[in-house]
Amino acid sequence: MKLRQAQRYQQAVTWLESTNGYGPDTDIDDNISWWEKWDDSLFGIKTSDIGLHDLEVSDLSPLAGLKNVRNLFITNSPVRDLSPVAALTRLELLYLQDVPVSDLSPLAGSERLKHLSLHGTAVSDLSPVSELDDLRSLAIDGAPLRDLAPLATLRKLEYLDLFDVEVTDLSPLLRITSLRQLRLTGIPVDNLRPLGEMDNLEAIHVSDVPVGERQIEWLRQRLPNCQIRHRPLEDRSE
After folding, report:
1. What is the extent of the structural domain holding 14?
2. Does pLDDT of 15 surpass 70?
């Protein structure tokens, strides 16, 4: 069993080397699996931080052999299936940017995941996130997301950043008593009153959101110990 695990580890880390430099301008034979480009020279490499950028591949299966990965970055790649990520039991940070992932269910068992960033994905359902009991920060940018209700069960979430999503109701955030910092940018929320009940908040940044200065002033009165910054829709000076 240990020999098999060692072989899988060797295959995975050498695959990482083989993908180095493969980008959108590289001509790759579609008939060759990306993990078939192995090189045996990297056995023993430290693999706590993995970055996969601009890859013309969508199968993350080789990652399953890397048990020590703590930080995983995937950008500008046609990855749709996160199932292999479920095998990364020590994963603490996952950063996705410009990948067509829509299903987060493989992450539901990631007990150590603390930081999750989703930029330019197709995620519309945060239900799997509700099972990430140790999650501390969540950033979502440019996703067809409408419902924040799954976040209500998170007891350690401290930072939430919502940018260009379709959320209109902030009331689910009331139950996140651990939340300290909140950023709202370019979302169609026109009612900030739920935030007025969240005296746990230390900083709120509201930008390009259809709320008037009256709501902002009301919020400042309700939360005198919270730093509140506001950039109106028509203000582009910053």
Report:
1. 1-22+45-101
2. no
